[in-house]
């Protein structure tokens, strides 16, 4: 997130009034007196069970150290509340949850949140200013990605019984009030207390002790690494707030863990899992001819993606010497035959990704102009000259002749980078060793794609191995930067901002658990991230983001994959949803959905 205006009409004064929400893109849609979001069913029935599948395993309920230690359980966010809650029919607006109001000055040098006196933990204790301050300090200390996210916060202080003020080190960063509004609040008294056996809790360690929360659900039961069930908190303190009306409708939400996606899909087909998101084009084209689909007991539906841009790619670990030359990285792109992959494996369903903000107005195209061009001129000496002369393009392979031509260009780039070929082997003349790469994957669905890609790389004389590891090994190797090439993805919001430091910033390159998986340390990238964060208008934000996109693309940090503009879903016809789902919520399942007893009875009767 990066750009905004005060929620109230008119200019923000130096002694601002309290406002019920924060908008980064003009005035809020909903007034202070709003009763509910427009897209919910305020009368949705409460009850029923929804079962979902997760691939992998888990060994921790402590999301503070997610990405650093342990494998976090799915759904733990259901247990906690944040200071504010986003609306799903606005690009970037938040409304009061734990905090009923916020205020900040015209220069955005601080923000205050007024906590609701009714906000409670599940043990009945009031959510306090001390809890909020403790939460910020804990995340900054133990969560590398959030530490980067909160890097501009100097401190948090208690102003009054229910007011917390956050001060920032740089005025003018319009996104910071909303960044803080997203803070998940932790129970200080619980984490600083002792467990049932009398042992002191330690928030820096993994734990399978069900945590104390304040949200609409709590953990009911679990089988470590296998399953977990969350139950709705009947006396949840926030159940009647406008931001919560029509949500948290299921009595129970269950996640079952599978090591193999194919086994998980078979569980869905038998009715043991209620909802399946299909990420494999082949399955979507050929895998849904089973009886329940034919009989319409299972519903297939695609939901448009409007809220995020996506870069999915083969990502290089540039910490390793062999990937530090961009010509080598570009050569890998010339060797990737996307067109054949798309037809052979994906039934022609995908388009090639051509931006780190693919699918949004923030994606660059053509040649830079206007404000975007001026920004790029400021870092001209530190970025590839093609940024100014050539629109970014991915090689295409419409014909066998085009593919052979692309392999020749790949070889030209590799030799230009100082590598040599002898007896059909590509090697480094300094070490006299063959150029080798390992693709590290934690999901076998990519194995067939990489094996197809492998044959082209081997024609260039590269030795290629594919290492499929379990979830635990995969996470640990990423934390230690122990990989050559991985399949990585980054979701980008419509209002990028502080999170860009964690994705691409130099400071995060060597921080275990950060999203800078590539290891980018580029002063031009750092400077453009700062321009995004300091943007004064939507126009400034778009220009700076497009400029960053071009610099990332022309440094060839990745070999871009493919994209599909909708979420493909299959569900057993046991649920209802609002007539009009929110524009930016995709399927919004299970948040806005509910158990439909009538539909469930028909499915059972016809099964």
Can you describe what's shown?
- With 607 residues, this protein is of the alpha+beta class.
- The protein folds into three domains: 1-34 and 57-215, D-Maltodextrin-Binding Protein, domain 2 (3-Layer(aba) Sandwich), CATH 3.40.190; 217-305 and 565-606, D-Maltodextrin-Binding Protein, domain 2 (3-Layer(aba) Sandwich); 308-563, Dipeptide-binding Protein, Domain 3 (Dipeptide-binding Protein, domain 3).
- The chain contains 18 helices and 26 strands.
- A five-stranded mixed beta sheet has the order 20-19-21-14-22. The chain has a four-stranded mixed beta sheet with strand order 2-11-10-9. A four-stranded antiparallel beta sheet has the order 5-6-8-7.
- Helix 8 packs antiparallel against helix 12, helix 10 (370-377) packs across helix 17 (538-554) and helix 16 (523-533) packs antiparallel against helix 17.
- The chain starts with 20 loop residues before the first strand and ends with a helix.
- The model is unreliable at 1-13 (pLDDT under 50).
Secondary-structure topology with pairs:
Blueprint: E1 21-23, E2 49-55, E3 84-86, E4 93-96, E5 99-103, E6 110-115, H1 129-142, H2 144-149, E7 153-160, E8 163-168, H3 176-181, H4 188-191, E9 217-223, E10 227-232, E11 252-258, H5 261-269, E12 275-278, H6 281-286, H7 291-294, E13 298-304, E14 308-316, H8 326-334, H9 338-346, E15 351-352, H10 370-377, H11 386-389, H12 400-416, E16 420-422, E17 425-428, E18 433-434, E19 436-441, H13 447-459, E20 463-468, H14 471-479, E21 485-493, H15 499-504, H16 523-533, H17 538-554, E22 558-560, E23 562-563, E24 566-572, E25 575-576, E26 594-595, H18 597-606
Parallel strand pairs: 2-11, 19-20, 19-21
Antiparallel strand pairs: 1-4, 3-4, 5-6, 6-8, 7-8, 9-10, 10-11, 12-24, 13-24, 14-21, 14-22, 15-23, 16-17, 17-18, 25-26
Helix pairs in contact: 8-12, 10-17, 16-17
């Amino acid at each position: 997130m990066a750009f905004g205006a005060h929620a109230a009409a008119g200019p923000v004064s130096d002694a601002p009034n309290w406002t019920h929400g924060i908008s980064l893109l003009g005035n809020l849609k909903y007034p202070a007196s709003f009763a509910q979001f427009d897209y919910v069913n305020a009368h949705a029935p409460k009850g029923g069970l929804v079962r979902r599948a997760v691939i992998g395993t888990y060994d921790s309920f402590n999301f503070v150290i997610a990405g650093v230690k342990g494998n976090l359980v799915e759904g733990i966010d259901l247990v906690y509340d944040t200071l504010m809650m986003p609306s799903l029919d606005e690009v970037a607006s938040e409304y009061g949850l734990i905090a009923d109001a916020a205020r900040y000055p015209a220069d955005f040098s601080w923000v205050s949140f007024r906590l609701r006196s009714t906000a409670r933990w599940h043990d009945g204790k009031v959510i306090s200013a001390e809890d909020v301050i403790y939460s910020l300090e804990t995340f900054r200390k133990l969560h590398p990605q959030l530490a980067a996210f909160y890097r501009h916060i100097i401190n948090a202080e208690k102003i009054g019984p229910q007011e917390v003020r956050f001060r920032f080190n740089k005025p003018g960063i319009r996104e910071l009030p909303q960044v803080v509004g997203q803070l998940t609040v932790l129970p200080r008294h619980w984490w600083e207390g002792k467990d049932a056996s009398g042992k002191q809790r330690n928030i820096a360690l993994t734990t399978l002790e069900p945590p104390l929360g304040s949200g609409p659900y709590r953990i009911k039961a679990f089988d470590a690494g296998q399953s977990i069930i969350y139950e709705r908190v009947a006396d949840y303190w926030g159940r009647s707030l406008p931001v919560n009306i029509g949500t948290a409708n299921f009595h129970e939400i269950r996640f079952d863990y599978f090591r193999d996606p194919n086994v998980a899909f078979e569980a869905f087909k038998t009715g043991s899992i209620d909802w399946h998101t299909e990420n494999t084009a082949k399955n979507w084209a050929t895998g849904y001819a089973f009886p329940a689909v034919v009989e319409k007991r299972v519903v297939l539906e695609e939901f448009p993606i409007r809220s995020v841009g996506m870069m999915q790619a083969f990502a290089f670990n540039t910490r390793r010497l062999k990937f530090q030359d961009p010509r080598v990285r570009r050569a890998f792109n010339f060797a990737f035959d996307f067109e054949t992959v798309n037809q052979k494996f994906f039934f022609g369903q995908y388009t090639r990704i051509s931006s780190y903000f693919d699918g949004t107005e923030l994606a660059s195209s053509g040649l830079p102009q206007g404000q975007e061009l001026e920004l790029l001129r400021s870092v001209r000496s530190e970025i590839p000259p093609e940024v100014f002369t050539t629109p970014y393009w991915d090689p295409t392979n419409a014909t066998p002749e085009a593919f052979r031509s692309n392999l020749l260009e790949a070889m030209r780039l590799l030799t230009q980078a100082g590598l040599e070929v002898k007896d059909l082997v590509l090697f480094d003349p300094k070490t006299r060793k063959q150029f080798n790469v390992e693709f590290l994957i934690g999901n076998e669905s990519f194995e067939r794609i990489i094996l197809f890609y492998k044959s082209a790389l081997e024609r260039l004389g590269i030795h290629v191995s594919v290492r499929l590891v379990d979830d635990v090994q995969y996470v640990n190797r990423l934390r230690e930067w122990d990989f050559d090439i991985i399949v990585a993805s980054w979701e980008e919001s419509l209002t990028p901002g502080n999170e860009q430091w964690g994705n691409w910033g130099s400071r995060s390159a060597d921080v275990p658990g950060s999203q800078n998986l590539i290891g980018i340390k580029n002063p031009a990238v750092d400077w453009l991230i700062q321009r995004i964060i300091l943007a004064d208008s939507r126009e400034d934000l778009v220009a700076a983001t497009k400029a960053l996109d071009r610099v990332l693309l022309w440094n060839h940090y990745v070999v871009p994959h493919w994209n599909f503009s909708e979420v493909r879903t299959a569900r057993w016809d046991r649920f209802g949803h609002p007539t009009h789902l929110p524009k930016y919520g995709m399927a919004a399942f299970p948040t806005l959905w509910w158990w439909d007893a009538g539909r469930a009875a028909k499915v059972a009767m016809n099964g």
